[in-house]
Design a protein that fits this description.
By secondary structure, the protein is of the alpha+beta class. It is 25% helix and 23% strand. The longest helix has 9 residues.
Length: 93
Amino acid sequence: MARMSANPWFGALPLADRQALLASSEVLRLRPGEMLFRQGDAPGGFYGLLGGLLKISSLREDGREAILVVLEAGNWIGEISLMDGEPRTHDAT
């Protein structure tokens, strides 16, 4: 929990809420280059990055990849689709 609590959003939650969120979670392990989700995928899942890096990107109109950000451990992702119920807006690799 300490690693994730370094994130300002998560760290600001009351301890009981942090514990409940982590207790309802499961650990996913991705291989390098493996997709967590693709742009256009159905909404679902809110992810905390425990280790490694996660690239958030999309395809430009010319077909080239546009890297928006590379997230490090302690960051959270997936909240946009949970809030608006719309398909994923970017790729997460």
